[in-house]
Amino acid sequence: MSLNAKFVARVRITTALLVLVALVIVGRLWVLQVMHGEEYARRADAQTVRLESPLLSRGSIYFTTKDNTPVLAATLRPPSEAASSTLKQRYYPGGVLAAQAIGFVAFNNDHEQKGRYGLERYYDSTLARPGENLYTNFFVQLFGTVETAWQGATQTQGDLITTIEPNVQAELERTLREYDTEWHSTLSGGVVMDPYTGEIVAMAVAPTFDLNSFNTVEDPLTYANPMAQSVFEMGSIFKPLTVAAGLDSGKISESETYNDTGCITVDTKKICNFDGRARGVIPMQQILSQSLNVGASYVATKMGPTTMREYFLERYKLDQETGIDLPGEVHGLTKNLLGNKAVEFDTASFGQGLAVTPIEMVRALASLGNGGLLVTPHLVKAVKQLDGTTREVGWGEPEQILKPQTSTAISRMLTTTVDTTLADGTLKLEHYSVAAKTGTAQIADPVNGGYYSDKFLHSFFGYFPSFNPRFVVFLFAKEPKGAPFASQTWAPPFKSLTQFLINYYDIAPDR
User: Fold this and answer.
1) What range defines the domain where residue 170 resides?
2) How many domains does one find in the chain?
């Protein structure tokens, strides 16, 4: 046989062997996948941990009553009570209670159930459990657990213990509902906070929604929390911050006077009191008592851009996020204070031309009553871990941004405002001192520039008792209708909420 013939024979034999091997493989696959497919599927399942549901073991969220009793805010509904007999569902016993703060669980783009909005999203990795995926390989679980133990990983999963007091939360939400019924605002909100610790006792937004039927909400913007995710020009509740900065820096004194001319011109721009009326030579107290724009501008001029920028940006930190434990927090828009134009600082002194979030405002205003401390607002105080232990959540030490004597002085001035002029003195309580201030801000016109002449944001803040406050309360409403000034719309609700808190917590009188 020639050499060429031998080569052809070898090629044919090799090809025949390859075809035979291919036929054997195809036949074997047919036997495995068709004839015995179900059997091998069962064997595969034997090496797999099958979970009932992606939410089989998600942690719970608890409110905390005034006597430190936990009350369920979010949990899992057992399969027997759920719409499906095989899947557990996230259940919110309070329904609408603290909806924007709590958030909810829903499918994301990857078809996984995750925390969406609020605490459910911010603490998703804490509430989620290892192995929440529908199928987890047994060996991956085993060796993954060993690896975690070997590396000494810290346990982070558990239940959230919040600072939200359910009865106070319900009262705040009732207050907002009644307010909107009377004044028909497009948006309203409120916060009740411990000014010394930053613990948020209540946080509410209207309109709101039921967490158990969130999928029926037509406008998804309702899910968001404007207390941390939206900025507003706040108006005259900035004046106490301005006066406090002037006092603290030594640029003005509490007993000082100035000549109020009703209107002034700064950088060719006219700045006037709300009524344009001159008051003549008056003391600093009247800047707050009568809410005078010209007076706030006087204090801004005395401080100058450098000092005012130091207090507004470096101390009150109005250009920074507060660090609150809510997703999507934004920071204030304060670029007007980065230059040196006098008019920008004058308008900022009474809360126009810069926009901040409500929670930034609450943090700054709390420093007026708590001895000059800047705290971190927060909603969660502890995590009950899987091993049964409770881990306190640390929020850092407060920062001293004002002198204690400045806090005392501005609290005294704000108390005088309540006792004598605010809402014509109707807010004064016989046995309790209250420090408070209103704000009425024009709303910017994004299309034509400038401000609307008939659209306002009404805000109100106060703390009590004035010189050792238990709570700071902040309220705001966008575009209320029927009254031009915040003192007309917010004074009665604030007083009612204050009296509720005094009675509910049995706060001792201070006068």
Assistant:
1) 166-379+397-504
2) 1
